[in-house]
Fold each of these.
Amino acid sequence: MPEPKQRGLNMDLGNPWTLISGLVIGLVGMVLFMYGKREQNLRALGAGVVLCVYPYFVASVVLMWVVFALVLGAAWALGKYE
C-alpha cells in the first residue's frame, strides 16, 4: 500500500538552469543598480531594477536570457544614441 503524500515536503524547484540563470541575471542587475545609483545614471539604475525583479516572474530559461539581452541592448542603445 503506497504511503500518502505529505504536503510541503516535496519541494519542486524545477529546472536547475532556471535557478542559476536567475541568480546570474539578478547579480548583473544588482551591479548595474549599484553603478547607476553611484553615478546617478537613470538608464543603468532602471536596467538594474528590471534585471533584479523580472527573473522572479519568468519560468522559461530561454525567455529569461532573451529579456536579459533586450534590456542590456536597450540600455546600451539609449546611452550610445542619446
Amino acid sequence: MGTKAFVVYVKYKTDVLEVSTSAEETCAEFKDRLMAVTSIQPDKQRLLGLKRRKEEGSASLAAKVTDETPIGHLDLSANSAKKPLMLLGTPEAAHASLQRWVLNRPCAFTP
C-alpha cells in the first residue's frame, strides 16, 4: 500500500514552487526533486524553515534535520503558499559561467 502524496511549498527567487512528496521520502530525495525544477545541485541547496516535529513528551526539538531525515518527521504544519520554505542556491550553469568570467578576466593589478 503506497503512501499519500502531499505538496510542499518552496519559494525560490520570486516563484513559489509546489513540490509533490510523501512522508517516507528523505530530505535528500526531496532535494533531488528540487534540482529537477531549479537546476541547483543538492549539495548547493540551502532550505530555510525546515525543522523537526517536537517529539511527544519532549520539551526541546529533536535532532537536527539531515539529508536522511524523512519528510514525515518534519514540522510542515505552517507550510503553505503564503508561508513557503525558502530555497537558497545557485544553479550549476550560473556557477560555470561565473567561473569562466573570473578565469578570463584580465587582471588589473600588476606587482
Amino acid sequence: MQRPENSSSMRNCQTKVQVFAKFHVAEPTVIDILAAIDIHRLHSFSFWDALIVLMAKQAGCRVLLSEDMQNGREIDGVKIVQSVSVRQARRGENPVGYVRH
C-alpha cells in the first residue's frame, strides 16, 4: 500500500516547478543534433558536450561554466570556463559546498 503524499511536500514540489518554468529551455531539434555531430567531429568534443555548447550558443550564452570541458576553449563564440570551485578542488583545496566524487 502506498503512503498518501504529504501536502506540504507536494506544495514544495509545485513551487519548485513553477520557479523552473520561468527559465528559458533550449530544446534541440534534428538540425541541432546534426550540428552537434559536426562540432563533435571538428573539435574532438564528446557528442553530448558538443550539444551542450551548441545549445548554450542558441540560448545566447557567451560563457559556459564546466567541470570537465577544455578550460579557455572557445567554440562558435561560446567560451568554456572551468568554475573556481573545480580548480580549487583539483589543487587539493576544499571550497565550501563542493563535494568531490
